[in-house]
Specification:
Distance between the termini: 24 Å
Bound molecules: iron/sulfur cluster
Radius of gyration: 19 Å
CATH architecture: Alpha-Beta Barrel
Number of domains: 1
Helix content: 25-40%
Largest sheet: 12 strands, mixed
Strand content: 15-25%
Shape: globular
């Protein structure tokens, strides 16, 4: 078990398998920046599945037990089921999950489950079709995402978490319908405060709907009560409906930062480690791996990176930090 400079262990490895996505969500990958001339990573720049699995093994050796596959859109990486099968074989991985926009999920859910995936998290920012199409900025319909959620449920990739980024004046008027739609479904909606990830989404504090306001809006219609976290370092604050019909979560990185228990590390598709979602730089592993580093040396390298870690961006967010160059979320995954 290796601890960082704030005594935090590493439990949760998030692996971005591609920087590409078929959506252009305005808060993550604005179309004006990620346009037809944008240079995405070339195939040879991406870590191979074997290389990803080696890095994952190194982190499991240091205490990681949860692996989340992300992107861009991870289902756009060809043959990802093979990677899932390789990661599922690593002793010590007891939670293998994937975050997707569900555009390809309906067709792939059963194959993902058969490969060894445990669960999925689906991004869905509104049930209002006009609002959702505008937010994903490619006109993708709500109905197809719901079909993907249903297929994942049938394939046993549950409990399904549904991530909903809330932006004032954009989709905040659809928070309560979203909560109502899923509260009897067994699926768990997590309402996410809009964050200043990367440097391209034009974030400003006025557009943030604080967690407290989200909870009170839902609570006005369906009384809720807080619930203990499932584990130390859980990202979402949990709330249950007092009538017994399910729960939801809020991820309050802006108004209630949770860096104190943060045990997450991210691997970019290009093979660099990032110790914070709001990092400005990462540590390259692809070079050493392709230069023939041994598994033991690889583990020492990632241990060294983690033991030097001191990140707590959300606790120190300010006008100054906000303007700092930060890695794009679409490059390292949420
Ligand atoms: S801001 Fe960085 S350190 Fe804080 S919770 Fe998020 S990823 Fe962890």
């Amino acid at each position: 078990m290796v601890l960082d400079t704030l005594g935090r262990p590493v439990h949760d490895l998030r692996i971005s398998v591609t920087d590409r996505c078929n959506f252009r969500c305005t808060y993550c990958m604005p179309a004006s920046i990620f346009d037809k001339d944008y240079e995405f990573l070339a195939r040879e720049q991406l870590l191979t599945f074997e290389e990803i699995t080696r890095v994952a093994r190194a982190f499991v050796g240091l205490g990681v037990s949860k692996i989340r596959l992300t992107g861009g859109e991870p289902l756009m990486r060809r043959g990802i089921e093979n990677l899932i099968a390789m990661l599922a074989e690593i002793p010590g991985v007891d939670d293998l999950t994937l975050t997707t926009n569900a555009s390809l999920l309906a067709r792939r859910a059963h194959r993902l489950a058969a490969a060894g995936l445990d669960r999925v998290t689906v991004s869905l920012d509104s049930l209002d079709d006009t609002v959702f199409r505008a937010m994903n900025d490619v006109g993708f319909p709500v109905a197809d995402v719901l079909e993907g959620i249903e297929a994942a449920d049938e394939a046993g990739l549950a409990p399904i978490k549904i991530n909903c980024v809330v932006i004032r004046g954009v989709n905040d008027h659809t928070i309560v319908p979203m909560a109502e739609h899923f509260r009897r479904s067994g699926h768990i909606v997590r309402f996410i405060e809009y964050m200043d990830v990367g440097t391209t989404n034009g974030w400003c504090l006025d557009d943030v709907v604080p967690a407290a306001e989200i909870i009170s809006r839902i609570g006005e219609v369906h009384p809720v009560a807080p619930v203990e976290p499932n584990y130390v370092g859980e990202v979402a604050n949990r709330y249950r409906y007092t009538d017994g019909w399910g729960e939801f979560g809020v991820i309050a990185s802006v108004t209630q930062p949770f860096c104190g228990d943060c045990s997450r590390v991210r691997l970019s598709a290009e093979g660099s480690i990032y110790t914070c979602l709001f990092a400005s730089a990462g540590t390259d592993l692809r070079g050493p791996i392709r230069d023939g580093v041994s598994d033991a040396e690889l583990e020492q390298r990632v241990a060294a990176v983690w033991s030097r870690r001191a990140d707590r961006y959300s606790e120190r967010r300010s006008e100054v930090t906000f303007r700092r160059r930060k890695v794009e979320m679409s490059y390292i995954g949420g």
